Amino acid sequence: MTPDGPSRSRVGLALASALAAWLLWTQIWPQGAPRSGGVDFVQFWAVGQAARVDGTADVYSPRGRERLAAWTGERAAESRSPRLRAAAAYRQRFETFSTPFLYQSLGWIAGGDYDRDLAVFQRVGIAAAAAAVLLLAHMMGYGWTGGLLAFLLLGLASEPMASDVRVANVNRLQLLAVAGWMWAQRSPSPARQVSAGLLLGLLLAFKPTLGPALAVLALVGWATRQWRSMALQAAGVALSGVAVVVVTSVAWGSARAWWDWAMALRSLERDANVTLASYNLAAAQVLSGRGVPAASAILAAVLLAVTAAVLWSARRGATGPADAGRLGMAAGSLAFAISLWPLQLVWLHYYLLFTPLALWLLRPAGPGEECGGRSLAERLLAAVAALGALGSPHLLPVLRDSFPLQASSYILGALCLIGLGWVELFRAARGAAAAPSPTVAPGG
Fold first, then answer.
1. Which DSSP string corresponds to 22-42?
2. What integer pLDDT is reported at residue 203 of this predicted model?
3. Chain centroid, CA 256 distance in Å
4. Which of 33, 101, 180, 254 has the lowest tally of Cβ within 10 angstroms?
């Protein structure tokens, strides 16, 4: 006898769960304790630990960074932790350019035992990545089995994912916040829309690199006349912004920390190693290196102009009733991918935030649709682009010893995903532009 459909689903789910558990404990988790010892996490840890022990709050001035590096070096010399010693040896020069809210949020982990604190942070990060992929897959129609298999692929084949684990950075946490926002904004409920705005505000206060996403989302809301949704989410962003400033000001003793952070950003390229040779994969940095002035501003303007043109064309050719769910997912996945493109600094692990767009472009067909209007060629192109932006091109013999070719693979793969994302946004907005009601939230 052959098992029926539900039985096959249960078997598939059990198998995918077992494979995911194997991946966590034998492949991903061991990478959380490399020889580098978490070279990004050590900075978060040092700020929190130094503030707790010595009352250190000056983290944005050159003198403050020198003091933090020296403090960490002293603790490493006294420690038996090879991870702390390796991280301190690597971080002879601290690059503290994160927001006061990020340092405050991660400060609770700095309990004093570096190995234990790093292990806690890595477990939280891995759980966040798994939860994000499962939530995105659930919303996009993959099912739980498909979601677990997607997480397996991301864990086994994605160098951006591996990079975030190795250096112990926060892109896995950002990915979960993005997935949470995409879930919250799917409902037209005022509470859900305000919640989406609150989460978006916290996400931007945590790490403002996703700030350009606001402009893309605003364009989509304007083009599809989602005024109510935009107002509710804007209120949520404002509320969370005020709350973050108040809480961090109390914790840091004043609101001056935010001013110090803003001033420190002006010296980012001078005080931090952001060159292409340091594996900065920013397209804007590539253009700047070739003598293009104001490359970030030019890229931002071009991306927003193309998005606006896509939405304008969709409004002119509106053909049917709104598919708000499809619009919200298309707009959200594209907006957060676009937000990375104009930045002057895009480390490899930043590319993890192309995951929502890749999953959306490769989603299975829903009820009554044939691949969502996507041709086989589009789906194959999306798969190749996803491998370029989220895969491990350095494993290919032809790319193994060539950083320029590896960088080109990531950048071109990301650009191709964005291009296909514009096509999806056009299709979704073409129906939404004809909607009679302005009160339906994108994705609601």
1. HHIIIIIHHHTS-TT--TTHH
2. 95
3. 28
4. 254
Provide the token pair at 114.
């570096």
DSSP 8-state secondary structure symbol assigned to residue 209? G
Question: Cβ(322)–Cβ(435) under 8 Å?
Answer: yes
Residue that the structure tokens 């940095």 belong to: 285
228: Cα separation from own chain's centroid: 27
Q: Map residue 377 onto helix, strand or coil.
A: helix
How many C-beta neighbours within 10 Å does residue 31 have?
17
Q: In which residue are the tokens 């609101």 written?
A: 255
Place of tokens 């040779």: 277
Residues whose CB is less than 8 angstroms from the CB of residue 185 and which lie 6 or more positions away in sequence, other chains included? 192, 193, 196, 229, 233, 328, 332, 441, 442, 443, 444
Burial status of residue 339 (CB atoms within 10 A of its CB: 0-12, 13-18, 19 or more): buried
Residues contacting residue 106 through CB under 8 Å, at least 6 positions apart: 44, 45, 48, 121, 170
Dist CA 94 CA 59 (whole Å)? 9
More confident residue, 256 or 441: 256
Which tokens is 291 given? 């003598």
Distance CA 257, CA 15 (A): 49
Q: 123: Cβ–Cβ under 8 A, 6 or more apart, which residues?
A: 29
For residues 122 and 86, what is the distance between their CA atoms, to the nearest angstrom?
A: 17
Tokens representing 95 are 């690059």
Which of 213, 351, 386 is closest to 280 using CA atoms?
Answer: 351
Angle at 403 between CA 400 and CA 409, to 5 degrees: 85
Quote the CA–CA distance of 21 and 1 in Å, as a whole number: 30
Please, which residues have CB within 8 angstroms of residue 254's CB and are 6 or more apart in sequence? none
- The residue among 158 and 12 whose pLDDT is bigger is 158
Round to whole Å and give the CA distance between 397 and 357: 28
Max mean pLDDT range (39-53, 113-127, 392-406): 113-127
Which of 130, 131, 106 minimizes the C-alpha distance to 118?
Answer: 106
Specify whether the CB–CB gap between 88 and 73 falls below 8 A. yes
pLDDT digits (tens, 9 = 90+) for 46-73: 988 776 655 556 788 888 888 889 989 9
Residue 74, Cβ neighbours under 10 Å: how many? 11
Q: Locate 292 and state its tokens.
A: 């293009």
Contact 208, 172 (CB under 8 A): no
If we measure between CA atoms, which residue out of 320, 26, 244 comes closest to residue 156? 26
CA dihedral (235, 237, 242, 247) positive or negative: positive
